[in-house]
Amino acid sequence: MDELERYEPLIEDFDAFREACRRPLPSVVRVNTLKTTVERAKAALDEEGVGWEDREWSETVLELDTDGPGSTWASFHGWIHGQEEVSAIPAEVLAPEPGERVWDACAAPGGKTTQLSALMDDEGLVVANDNNLGRLSALRFNTERLGATNVAVTNRDARNFSLEPFELDAFDRALVDAPCSCEGTVRKNPTALDDWTVNHVRSVAGVQKGILRRTIQATKEGGTVVYSTCTFAPEENEAVLDHALAEEDCRLVEFEVGLDSRPGVTEWDGEEYDESVRKAKRFYPHLEDTGGFFCAKLEVEG
Amino acid sequence: MKHDGQQFDRLPATPDDREVEGRASRREVVDWWHERFGIDPETFDGYTFWEKGKGKIWILRGDTASPIRIEALGMAFLRTRQEHWKPTTNAVQRFGREATRNVVELTREQARTFARGDDQEIDWDGDWGYLVAAHELAGDREPLGVGLFLHGELQSLVPKGRRRDL
């Protein structure tokens, strides 16, 4: 985990951060309200003797006292879905409404896609795209297992995505949960950093900039775009936002999540970013015992 | 017109509107769920039905352009273009709660066998063919998936990736 040393200047109580990164994650699931209610999911877990604990910030996120949430009746019926706590953040921040048209630009394996569908009560359209054909089967498996019927799956490069097949001018909202260097997933996958290089960070940042720009272009004026990653690298987070602010008509907006976080950083490695990137949030493993995450909310301007 | 397996085509409203040979119509699909499982046709009022792949019917909440060449649209729902139409496990889990006919209620132990994908002998004096297999969970009946009942035996049609040892 020596790769994480570079973030020491950004993170207060760096030792606690390092310690948290070494611990495994708690077992967290999201209740799938497309197929049941939170009450019934809890009752099903009770019947099986699986303990659960509420998370204050979200009604649908539960911590379970089992390492195998997939081996429960609640999971067999698609009532719960294993989803890391922080990965439930961006869909809630995007907050799509029933009947809207929403683009999930990097959708596989579909945890956030189905959460968007559930937030929309399965009304409206979620266009779930992923450029990786190998990951599309997981996306399709999860959307169908969880009972989402308002999802259309596409296999395109999000950077030049066309709305033409859908006869749409623009989406109401878009989610960019961007492919990234995944540093924040080290608690789930201890080998996540094995292939880490600064060159990989820089090259993935170029892709992220292209995807975020396209989602802003494809979203209507006044619409919302949420940008998220599971990494700490400012090159992939604030620098990508800074680029979008310079190149597209958009602004960052404040948002609330009931999980402790730190603001986006405006200086890194000799670079300075737009002051408004402070409105983004950095979620660190030692603050709320989660994975690492980054989330920003943008409004598209005319 | 011929069937093109690479795109999603919206089903015609009725058999009279049919332009592609062998394609099911919306009315036939809705009627089939009503006749087989007693599911109220109004259940599907907000949905459109699509064919992609030979006889594979998909259900979408709402509507979109037709034809449309994309990877998936809504949920795979029903197999047609064969003697006995066959619902998918996911469709039965999602819509089978409304079923009033051809629903076999399994005990917890029988439900475990079913979820594992194993066949089992059951007491069933109703119709042969595809049944909704269900069990009681959290105070109500909940559909597990599709079973095929023949000669006193219930075959579990839960696909490999969805089987669980519970």
Description:
The complex is a heterodimer of chains A (302) and B (166). Chain A is of the alpha/beta class and 302 residues long. Chain A is built from nine helices and 15 strands. Chain A has helices at 14-22, 38-47, 73-76, 89-94, 111-119, 133-145, 198-217, 238-247, 285-288, and strands at 27-31, 52-55, 58-64, 80-82, 101-104, 125-129, 151-154, 171-177, 219-229, 250-253, 262-263, 267-268, 271-272, 281-283, 293-300. In chain A, the strands form three sheets. In chain A, strands 5, 6, 7, 8, 9, 10, 11, 14 and 15 form a nine-stranded mixed β-sheet that branches. In chain A, strands 2-3-1-4 form a four-stranded antiparallel β-sheet. In chain A, strands 12-13 form a two-stranded antiparallel sheet. The termini of chain A are far apart. The model of chain A has no long low-confidence stretch (mean pLDDT 97). Chain B is of the alpha+beta class. Chain B has three helices and eleven strands, in the order βαβββββαβαββββ. Chain B has helices at residues 26-37, 89-95, 108-116, and strands at 9-10, 47-51, 56-61, 72-73, 75-79, 86-87, 103-105, 120-121, 129-137, 140-150, 153-156. Chain B has a five-stranded antiparallel β-sheet with strand order 1-2-3-5-6. The longest helix of chain B is centred in the N-terminal third of the chain and has 12 residues, at 26-37. The radius of gyration of chain B is 17 Å and the shape is elongated. Chains A and B meet through helix 2, helix 3, helix 6 and strand 7 of A and strand 3, strand 4, helix 2 and strand 10 of B.
